[in-house]
């Protein structure tokens, strides 16, 4: 971090009433500068106030950069379009974890290390027996991911770099296995073990769709689409679930518990649950003729309805991932011979209308990654309840890379925000016998 005050002695000045306070301004490599207000409370007795953190940088990071106005997304400086086009998911995992693209030898070694951690402890199967078959798979994932820390004590010492990396590899390797187990359990089919001779996405599809009674080979077009969907969802700066993982990790909680916290946060419909909600919304709209009715509802202040899959806290232009997701959606539908998917017709007409409607243009509401992912995943055979689980599988590498970066930051301390208190002032207890 290049502190501007060192270079030009400049600082940010806060003036409240007739008082001024100077704070250092730091400049990143790209993106907005930041004002370091860490000493604000000590010097002024005031807190900043920013519910939803719309103008707050919670940390310094070198992992992912987003430019919401230009629709730019970089993983360690590489554009998402190039990584999605030319790379594979485990290469992206290596990049996010280590900061550089792997050499051929490093890629072979990394793939080997991940592949040999894909099995989960055999006793984990008993966890599934405790869930109802109709339990939401995200409930199962959140429970089982947290339980991993009960099985892998040898990678929970966060002060040991070797254990931090082993825990990272274990999380990346075991999430697809747990996700596939959650799916199989929900449909009453036997679990399928991972295979070391398959690539990450093919292994996952096989664990989801193979049965012990016959051979299974993943459709290469669908496997490539799955791999690309994982790349698109791998990391996204300080989004809600990543911030949850960082905050949980700042207390020294073990990485498995932190990832479980990230899963819980991702589940919300405003965040990772939007892909499931977006598909449910398209199904509710049902046909193109009903779109105006829903557009009207989305604009109605008194109606809590929102167009799921639209809008973003950072992207005030098109989400670059949505474009790639749309292209992948068409590839999958073509491969599966799905010519006239009514949901896709509704989605494309809804997008066209929304992109030209004053309300959405003025509020800069564009389709986000969740808008097309649901149609794609449904076409691939996943039930809507599995959509956020797939998001969690992909985002695990982002969560764990950000967690590692935080733990390895010498300036790291426990996150503990303050508040604006507007509750009751001090008052004395009244015994119940004297209350009316
Ligand atoms: C993800 O942060 C990330 O990076 C997340 C993510 C990642 O990779 O980690 O990109 C993944 O979570 C994508 C977003 C998925 N969520 C949805 O698709 C749910 C629908 N979208 C919204 O709920 C909303 O757009 C958010 C939550 C995504 C962003 O909300 P903000 O930034 O807090 O904006 P806001 O709620 O303050 O909305 C601003 C205005 C409001 O109107 P006013 O009160 O100013 O009059 O826009 C309106 C909102 O009512 N608005 C919408 C809308 N989204 C915002 N109106 C209709 N439909 C919508 N979808």
Word description of this protein:
The protein has 19 helices and seven strands. With 436 residues, the protein is an alpha+beta fold. Strands 1, 2, 3 and 4 form a four-stranded antiparallel sheet that branches. Strands 5-6-7 form a three-stranded antiparallel sheet. Helix 11 packs across helix 19. The longest helix has 27 residues, at 161-187. The chain is globular, with a radius of gyration of 24 Å. The protein starts with a strand and ends in a 29-residue tail after the last helix. S-citryldethia Coenzyme A (SDX) binds next to helix 18.
Percent helix: 40-55%
**Major sheet description:** 4 strands, antiparallel
Shape designation = globular
Structural class: alpha+beta
> How far apart are the termini?
60 Å
Relative strand content: 5-15%
Q: Specify Rg, calculated over alpha carbons.
A: 24 Å
Keywords:
alpha+beta; 436 residues; 3-stranded antiparallel sheet; disordered N terminus
């Amino acid at each position: 971090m290049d502190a501007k005050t060192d270079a030009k002695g400049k600082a940010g000045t806060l003036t409240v009433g007739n008082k001024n306070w100077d704070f250092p301004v730091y400049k990143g490599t790209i993106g907005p500068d930041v004002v370091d207000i860490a000493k604000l409370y000590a010097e002024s007795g005031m807190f900043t106030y920013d519910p939803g953190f719309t103008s707050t940088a919670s940390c310094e990071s070198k992992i992912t950069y987003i430019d919401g106005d230009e629709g730019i997304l970089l993983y360690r400086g590489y554009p998402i379009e190039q990584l999605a086009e030319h790379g594979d998911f485990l290469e992206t995992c290596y990049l996010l974890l280590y900061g550089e693209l792997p050499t051929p030898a490093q890629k072979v070694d990394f793939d080997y290390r991940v592949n040999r951690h894909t099995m989960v402890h055999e006793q984990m199967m008993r966890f599934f027996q405790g869930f109802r078959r109709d339990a939401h798979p995200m409930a199962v994932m959140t429970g089982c991911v947290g339980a991993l820390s009960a099985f892998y004590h040898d990678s929970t010492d966060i002060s040991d770099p070797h254990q931090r990396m082993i825990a990272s590899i274990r999380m990346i390797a075991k999430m697809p296995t747990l996700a596939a187990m959650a799916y199989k359990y929900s449909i009453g089919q036997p679990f399928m073990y991972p295979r070391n001779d398959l690539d990450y996405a093919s292994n996952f599809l096989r664990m989801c769709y193979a049965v012990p009674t016959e051979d299974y080979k993943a459709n290469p077009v669908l496997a490539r689409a799955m791999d690309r969907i994982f790349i698109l969802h791998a990391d996204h700066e300080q989004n809600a679930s990543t911030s949850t993982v960082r905050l949980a990790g700042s207390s020294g909680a073990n990485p498995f518990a932190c990832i479980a916290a990230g899963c819980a946060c991702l589940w919300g419909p405003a965040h990772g649950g939007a892909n499931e909600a977006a598909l449910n919304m398209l199904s509710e709209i049902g046909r193109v003729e009903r779109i105006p009715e829903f557009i009207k509802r989305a604009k109605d202040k008194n109606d809590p309805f929102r167009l799921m899959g639209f809008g973003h806290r950072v992207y005030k232009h098109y989400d670059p991932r949505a474009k790639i997701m749309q292209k992948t959606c068409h590839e999958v539908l073509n491969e599966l011979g799905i010519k006239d998917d009514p949901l896709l017709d509704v989605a494309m007409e809804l997008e066209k209308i929304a992109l030209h409607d004053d309300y959405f243009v003025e509020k800069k509401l564009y389709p986000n990654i969740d808008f097309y992912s649901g149609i794609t995943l449904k076409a691939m055979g996943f039930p809507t309840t599995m959509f956020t689980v797939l998001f969690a599988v992909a985002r695990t590498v982002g969560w764990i890379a950000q967690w590692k970066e935080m733990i390895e930051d010498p300036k790291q301390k426990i996150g503990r925000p303050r508040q604006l208190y507007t509750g009751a002032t001090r008052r004395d207890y009244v015994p119940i016998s004297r209350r009316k």
